[in-house]
């Protein structure tokens, strides 16, 4: 990898060009190291980032939620997730979201990976967690209707991956990382 | 799964509340089947959608690109990708992007899966392809600087997944789907 390609472009100017209640669109005037100048647009997201949790109901069963998604105007299957509130750690947010959306806490959380949606346009980071050793505990959420919680056997992961309503790349990444870890642990044992 | 949870909320009203050169933010006034009313915001994206290509340079080696990402203001490793142009099929877009960004065409494409970024906020769909049987052919792209193309051995996939600059969930999903397919084919053979 050449040194020059790792020299970040210089931000000559930036300004907010549009904003709504949830989104801010920023334009960047950039000069690349080869002298080329371009304007880029990006979305300013939540600074705190977000979390997603893969909850193991038992060693063979995951918990999914089915929730209305306004972007696609459809009901989607996925893992519980949400924004990190100001002052929360990612772990605290994961535990709160699990209690709000699924009605369980977990005694054990581990981080799978940090991901971003589309780094060309968004900065917000999401931490993917696995939750084990669940116990019932519900916190009130802000959902407009109760979320449907679904037990999904790990043995049917391929069926889940083939479904049209399990299509969010962050959920797919989380599921595949879990399956990969399980396969590697089985190889070792 | 209860019937009521599959009744889509009614869209009472929708309007564009902010827009820029690339983005349109729409607000939806929704009434859920339980009578609850809420306003949601979502982004209107490219109707055509997008493609991402996992190119096999040979049976043991993938091709990656390193590209500036404005959202995170960083150089990121990932697979070639781009928007589908009006009038193009996803396959035609994949072949064009591969030629523009990597300098190769492919004689064989197969679809891994269709994914979305975050269905709560976005509708745009991305088709993930695998490209095999490459041959050199370059089309001019619109990048502000030449993209760095990197050969990455499949045997080092875990190192790639552990890197902080390989963090886009759609790239992670594509890589893990490829690894899963390879593992299943090895089990069969």
Question: Can you describe this structure in just a few lines?
Answer:
The structure is a homodimer of 189-residue chains. With 189 residues, chain A is an alpha+beta fold.
Largest sheet of chain A: 7 strands, mixed
> Quaternary arrangement of the chains shown?
homodimer
> How many β strands of chain A by DSSP?
10
Helix content of chain A: 10-25%
Indicate the low-confidence ranges of chain A by residue numbers. none
* CATH fold description of the largest domain in chain A: Nucleoside Triphosphate Pyrophosphohydrolase
CATH first level of the largest domain in chain A: which class? Alpha Beta
Largest interface by residue count?
A-B, 70 and 70 residues
What is the number of domains of chain A? 2
Cα radius of gyration of chain A in angstroms: 19 Å
Overall mean confidence score, pLDDT of chain A:
93
Query: Rough shape of chain A?
Result: globular
> In terms of structural class, how would the helical and strand content of chain A be classed?
alpha+beta
Query: Which architecture of the largest domain in chain A per CATH?
Result: Alpha-Beta Complex
Structural notes for this entry:
Two copies of one chain form a homodimer. Chain A is of the alpha+beta class and 189 residues long. The first copy, chain A, has two domains: 41 residues, no CATH class; 139 residues, Alpha-Beta Complex (Nucleoside Triphosphate Pyrophosphohydrolase), CATH 3.90.79.10. Chain A contains three helices and ten strands, in the order E-E-E-E-E-E-E-H-E-E-E-H-H. In chain A, strands 4, 5, 6, 7, 8, 9 and 10 form a seven-stranded mixed beta sheet that branches. In chain A, strands 1-2-3 form a three-stranded antiparallel beta sheet, with no helix packed on it. In chain A, a hairpin with a 4-residue loop joins strand 1 and strand 2. The mean pLDDT of chain A is 93. Chains A, B: Its EC number is 3.6.1.-. Chains A, B: Its cofactor is Mg(2+). Chains A, B: It comes from Psychromonas aquatilis.
């Amino acid at each position: 990898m050449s040194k020059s390609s790792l020299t970040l472009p210089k931000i000559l100017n930036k300004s907010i060009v549009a904003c709504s209640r949830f989104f801010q669109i920023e334009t960047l005037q950039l000069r690349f190291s080869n002298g080329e100048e371009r304007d880029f647009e990006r979305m300013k997201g939540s600074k705190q980032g977000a979390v997603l949790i893969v909850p193991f109901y038992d060693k063979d069963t995951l918990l999914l939620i089915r929730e209305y998604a306004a972007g696609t105007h459809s009901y989607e299957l996925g893992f519980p997730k949400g924004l990190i509130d100001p002052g929360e750690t990612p772990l605290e947010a994961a535990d709160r979201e699990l209690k709000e959306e699924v009605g369980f806490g977990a005694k054990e959380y581990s981080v799978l990976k940090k991901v971003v949606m589309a780094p060309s346009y968004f900065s917000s980071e999401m931490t993917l967690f696995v939750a084990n050793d669940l116990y019932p505990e519900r916190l009130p959420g802000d959902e407009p209707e109760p979320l449907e919680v679904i037990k999904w056997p790990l043995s049917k992961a391929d069926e889940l991956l083939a479904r049209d309503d399990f299509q969010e790349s962050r959920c797919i990444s989380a599921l595949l990382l879990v399956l990969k870890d399980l396969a590697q642990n089985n190889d070792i044992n």
